[in-house]
Design a protein that fits this description.
The complex is a heterodimer of chains A (137) and B (393). With 137 residues, chain A is mainly β. Chain A has 2 domains: 50 residues, no CATH class; 76 residues, Beta Barrel (OB fold (Dihydrolipoamide Acetyltransferase, E2P)). Chain A is built from 1 helix and 8 strands, in the order αββββββββ. In chain A, the strands form 2 sheets. Chain A has a 5-stranded mixed barrel. Chain A has a 3-stranded antiparallel sheet with strand order 2-1-3, covered by helices on one side. The longest helix of chain A is centred in the first third of the chain and has 8 residues. Chain A is globular and about 45 Å long. Chain B has 16 helices and 11 strands. In chain B, the strands form 3 sheets. Chain B has a 5-stranded mixed sheet with strand order 1-7-4-2-3, sandwiched between helices. In chain B, strands 8-11-10-9 form a 4-stranded mixed sheet, sandwiched between helices. In chain B, strands 5-6 form a two-stranded antiparallel ribbon. In chain B, α8 packs across α14. The relative contact order of chain B is 0.18. Classes of the chains: A mainly beta (137), B alpha/beta (393).
Amino acid sequence: MTTTYDKPLPDVDDPDMGPFWAATRQGRLTAQRCADCTTLRFPATPVCGTCLSEDTGWVDVSGTGTIWSYAVYHRAFHPGFRGELPYVVAIVENTDGLHYTGRVFGPRSAVAVGAPVSVRFDAVTPQVSLPSWVVAG
Amino acid sequence: MADLRRLSALCGEVAVVGVGETDYGTDYVRTRRGEKPYDSYGYAALALNRALADAGLTKDDLDGLIVGGPIAYERMAEIAGIEPGWSGSGDAPTSVTQAVMAITAGFAETVAIVYGNDQRTAGTAYGGPQAMGGEAILSYVYFAPWGMTSQGALYAMMTRRYMEVHGLEPHELGQVAVAQRAFAALNPNAVMRSPIDIDDYLGARYIAEPLRLYDYCLINDGGVAMILTTRDRARRGPNPLVTVAGLGRADENIGATTLRPRLVTFYHEGHAKVREQVYGTAGIGPGEVDVLGVYDSFSCHVPYALEGMGFCEIGDAGKFLVEKGVGPGGAIPTNTSGGHLSESYMQGWNHQPELVRQARGTAGERQVPDVRHTQFVSDVAGNVISVVYRSER
């Protein structure tokens, strides 16, 4: 199948991250949760970095948080983003204390370290829904 | 945890006896004209020849070879016609460290550390779809779908967070680029030699905001080499004695994919461990460092290193840059060749010969007076690492 989407796409079949992308297709933000020590972790890893347990599940996590930091791209290093300059990419800390990377949408003047954001899922292809973050205006 | 007693046994026993670099400025002009004077191995070989000549040695004196950049030690040994007893690869400070380890452990007596990179003419991308290592490094794969496609944006995020937490102002950060260009103007081998002032800095375009054009390193071709040997053998050589007097290293990879070591603690946990090691082994503190070299792929590394190594308090780097200064005549002259921002982007390698020259007292117009100790610090690619060189003239 062909698509006109010309930006990089994640590998939705990645053995670690596959379940995350399956959940985003259903509009859910998730993280791994260690079945032994209960530590939440993201992005996905094959074993728990806290206790090395191999026993892992996925749980839904909070879709709200604040901007930990951000960068404003004024030059597109990937041609797919050329039409969207300048665009904002942030690391968001959700209310579970997990850090997620994502585009930030909403008024540019409201983008700031500490600004509250909520998650949004954009179906960019039939297989891929990218979580992005919306800042309140 | 590092054992300072055993680590100290390595320090002061190995000397840098030869330094060699390629012609960054003239090669940059040639490559801009479309010429390709050398590939990565060619630049490395040229730098090696110059380092051997500087040391008064020949290739037959070498029994160790460590390489950096996109070159393999096997091929480098073939090209240079040497069969070393110890070989390996690493970034610049790791190569210095590894050479010291190989020599003090008895694997080798005289080690060449060699770097070559034709990144400009080869079109090496440090951002974008074919970014170097983009397929292998998790962070690039993970960030790319959101347009987080370049190294600069990582440091833009780090700087934005730092500005928010510590109040760093653009005109304060801009002192780094202005100071290093002032040094480059005194360095005939530098690529960018036209002085800039703070208005030029602030007036330049953003690349990944808050970082501007002059916060970014150059991309150019070149090579660097150094020859290290035992202190005893170095005493018989032609150059003023400069030893490796201090070493330190601490990794910071937990949480690296979401940039936690950069965005939460600004690498300062690694800095604190390295500070203890490098100053503990050298027997000095930051107040006794006369010239500093900081890995400056981006200008912001300088304030993080100044704080991390204790040249100023954490949070005070902006004020330090304006009031104390890192340029010619400043409190701690930093990247005195012009560094990656203005001399040459040799990924931490060109800082090493400059710090040795400053310790020898042979840095020409940009020589800092009465140099006894020089220090290199890098905080990139998952570790903090530092080397102190000592003049024993």
